[in-house]
Amino acid sequence: MNQLMRRQFRIYLVVIILTAAFLSVHSLSNPGENDAAYVRGIVFNDENRNQVRDDGEKGVAQVCVSNGIQVVETDEDGRYELPVSDDTIIFVIKPQDWKTPIDENNLPRFYYIHKPAGSPDMKYPGVEPTGPLSDSVDFPLYYEKEPTQYRAVIFGDPQARDRQELAYMTHDVIEELVGVDAEFGITLGDVVFNDLSLFDSHNEIVSRIGIPWYNVMGNHDTNQDVVGDRYSDETFEGTYGPPYYAFNYGDVHFIMLDNIQWGDGEYEGGFGDKQFEFMRNEIAYVPPDKLIILLMHIPLAGMADRPELLSIIDDREHTLSLSAHWHQQVHFFFDPATGWNGEGEHHHMICGTVCGPWWSGAPDEYGIPHATMVDGAPNGYFFITFDGNEYAIEYKAARAPASFQMNIYAPEEISSAEAGDTDVIVNVFAGSEKSTVEMKLGEDGEWVPMRRMLMLDPYIRKIKEAEESDSPPPGRKLSRQDPSTHNWMKKLPQDPTPGLYVIYVRTIDMFGHEYEGKRIIRINEA
Q1: Helix (H, G, I), strand (E, B) or coil at 330
Q2: Is the pTM of this model over 0.85?
Q3: Which of 101, 190, 200, 296 has the smallest CB count inside 10 Å?
């Protein structure tokens, strides 16, 4: 090669390098021009509710859309643009006064899955290949003014392991909720018990309640034949959509979180940096007067990254978080010593479970296990009532009147001389350190305060004794018994006059709900 040719080659090489650098910079500064890496679409007012954007249906401005990390607001025409990978779920964060479509099982459909190759081969199918990215990924919304006073239903761990246990759930809980006066329901994980083929049957049953139903991922909802966390939620995604997301209803902002990190044959609790980034990005669009509720499966009490999670919301005045997983009811009130640096305290509640202790215990006359939870409370679910950005929580025991809010333990009969040494123990379902509990003996007795005790519930203790006896009752044994945080104790008065008495117990919880319970005891002469 002569000198002229070498000089021309060098010039040509420099031009190529400069051109490549220009294109690279241009691409980074104008990301919308990189079709392979970006999704675009319109969030629109689907006036005829056919889930297709017809002529004349306008875009909806200022709606948040996310790819699971970044969050953008739609422009005045309802348009958005977000980066995507080959494993991305794009979803709308439902705004106040708008609804997303629901499917035949009342599951909200607010997302678009982009997995061109689909999920890997696993025991339980995940997402089918979605193919190339659509030119426009559009999201329909329906305008409907929402009340600021309303109720939601909260399930913890329905967790059926087979169709028989789905039947238990159906007859124990679902049937009494059909037509319930509530706007929507939420399950806080462990929708099923490892058999992910039951998702569809479970959803069909819950759909008969007749309200939209949101779901959080639990450790028993994971694909457990995978290595690492990345593909552990594929079946959940194929059924319910993103494993973490958010939506608004009335004056409340709900953030549904995935704190299940799957490893080599086991899980641990954790949120991860990606989820924290999503939260920071989307909370930036939430007005400061909204109530923010974090919903997860594993309780915050044992989470190593709890302080980081709480730091994202500690500048907010109105917050709450809910979990399940422990198969008991516990209230936590986090303060600076436990990771909360905001005003006052952060209330975290571990909700009771639909399945109790995994559908265990002797069956009743209908063949349904008694399913008493490990803290002695009956299985059931919660109602949360919202009034603007205020909330109140109330427990509902399965197949029991709404007024059934406590169990009272006392002997059948004692002598008057024994009374002063006899304990009355009350398990106030979902009670907390902020509850007041009082009792009196007889109509004319004096109301006296009871003392909260961390202790094993006496009824669950008797159940376990029977299960370990030589002639145990039928049914699966309870797995364990744990001390209850909502038991109260008080001794009977000294030397009462012999007779048949009613023990009255009354309680007022942190929300001002008042409940009363009664138990009859016979007091004999000494």
Answers
A1: strand
A2: yes
A3: 200
